[in-house]
Amino acid sequence: MLGTRGVPARYGGFETAVEEVGRRLADRGHRVVVYSRPTEPEASAGSSYLGMQRVELPVVRKRSLETLLHTGLSAGHLLRHRTDVAFLFNCANAPWLPLLRLRRIPVATHVDGLEWQRGKWGSTGRRYYQLAEKLAVRGSDALIADAAGIADYYAETHNAGTVQLSYGAPVVPPDTDRLAELDLAPGGYHLVVARFEPENHVREIVEGYRASAAARPLVVVGSAPYSDEYTAAVHAAADHRVRFLGGVWDQELLDQLYVGARSYLHGHSVGGTNPSLLRAMGAGAAVSAWDVNFNREVLGAAGRFFADPAGVAAAVEQADQDEAGTAARATLSSRRATDYNWDDVADGYERLAFDLAGHRLPRPRRTGR
């Protein structure tokens, strides 16, 4: 598995998928190798992590090149080691596909959620991603999409079929005892968890909240490693009711923030099925989300949707005032989360791996039941 920051998962959706799928495949007896970037000493697990073998390679800390160069090193390393199947994450890494094909390694590329639409990329970056999509279609043995909207895009734009493998929603314990560490109370705040990037609409959410008459504070979790200007704009849009916590890497505390939120505001618009959204649903949060097909696909009737700051203001005011309606949406959200199961996702990856390697799936062992 290559093309991500690797494991332990401490950043985004691809990393979460690698960790959750990889650990399950390792538990089933497969040898799983994950190419990883350097981590902090306390986060690193050496050469293995949850049964997966970590191959840690150096990086160049430059936003536009970091992923591509690290994946190139990973592909070069992989050429010298036997593997049955490679899972390549992020179509931006597609230029390295010929290298893997040269070694006759079957490759499934997990394409990203319309990366060229992200606001952080200029015209050159957008053209590169559009080219990379074409290279991924031509050079991959299979394409993986995590949402129906992504599958539809590749069918309509590139006349390419995809295997749809989504993400899983975690079952989050209903604990809130640590919220007191942040001077918060269960049900006493609205929550945003997102990287500070334009397509995640953190600024619009803060602007909408500021225009609202919400009595409960807005708690914002997240940051942006390369975007000081956008971060400054987000902070400038806030009033005294907005609390910025920065990155929260303590997973237990982050889970309790989801559980204790009066409502969760999800502004992501281009990334397909989003792990933060699924975690909020797994925590039983009432979710209001940016109005795009990806979010509607995941939330269904459990969601409320907005498309501008005025919609955010209406959403938080409704969540503040309508206790019964908000509780009902939270229950629907929790039920819908059960449709997203990591074991099922791992089953899909395993079937695809056997298919690409030209092997039959092993017979299930008899249980006597």
Give a quick set of tags describing it.
glycosyltransferase; Rossmann fold; 369 residues; 2 domains; transferase; four-stranded parallel sheet; globular; Glyco_trans_4-like_N; six-stranded parallel sheet
Account of the protein in words:
The chain is α/β, with parallel strands linked by helices and 369 residues long. Helices cover 41% and strands 13% of the residues. The protein has 13 helices and 13 strands. Helix 1 crosses helix 13 and helix 6 crosses helix 11 (309-321).
The tally of beta strands, per DSSP, is 13
* Helix vs. strand class: alpha/beta
Q: What series of H and E elements makes up the topology?
A: HEEEHEHEHEHEEHEHEHEHEHEHHH
Determine the N-to-C terminus distance.
Answer: 35 Å
Strand order of the largest sheet: 10-9-8-11-12-13
Characterize the biggest β-sheet. 6 strands, parallel
CATH architecture of the largest domain: 3-Layer(aba) Sandwich
Mean pLDDT over the residues: 91
* Total domain count: 2
